[in-house]
Amino acid sequence: MKADDLLRKAYKCILDNDFEGAIGWFEQAMIIEPDRADIRYRCSITYARSDKLDQAIRNVKEAIRLDPEEPSYNLHYQRLQAKELTRLAVRKLQFRQDDDFGEAAEAAKLLEKAAKLDPLSAEAQVWLALSYGETKDYHKALKAIWEASALMQDDAVSEHLKKLEQRFKTYIDHSSN
């Protein structure tokens, strides 16, 4: 069987929301044609959709090695790096002690990098706002909330962001009095 036949099977699986099946077909296609960057890239996207970030990063790096001039591969890689940094930062925020501002500051630095790599990541902006809030940098927290609000389309999430915005404004008001 040719690699393109396997790709068609992978796309059929994707249409059926069977991402694991699609990954299996992509992996088989890569065995047949290991030097095709497009297969690695597509497999990376499917791994990312399945929340398998390590495998997604490994495959997109290989796609970039095979075809470094393709801009979509590099853009995808930046988004994956942003996701990875966001995950690391969230772990720091979730497992820190209440009085450990150093962990929150480190999380904020990771999230600043994530937001730079993927300026359309509302998730990174929300967590960035929370990390700034933890370090009591409420002006930066507000700015991150506004960025996240501009990116969000979900009414329920937008309502939650408005509450966070109001909370940070209250902290700013109390600290200026």
TrEMBL record:
UniProt keywords, alphabetically: Repeat, TPR repeat
Q: Which InterPro entries match?
A: O-mannosyl-transferase_TMTC, TPR-like_helical_dom_sf, TPR_rpt
Q: Where are the transmembrane segments?
A: none
**What SMART domains does the annotation carry?**
TPR (SM00028)
Q: Which domain of life is it from?
A: Bacteria
Repeat region (TPR), residues = 37-70
Q: Which PANTHER family match?
A: PROTEIN O-MANNOSYL-TRANSFERASE TMTC4, PTHR44227
Q: Provide the protein name.
A: Tetratricopeptide repeat protein
Q: Which organism is it from?
A: Paenibacillus physcomitrellae
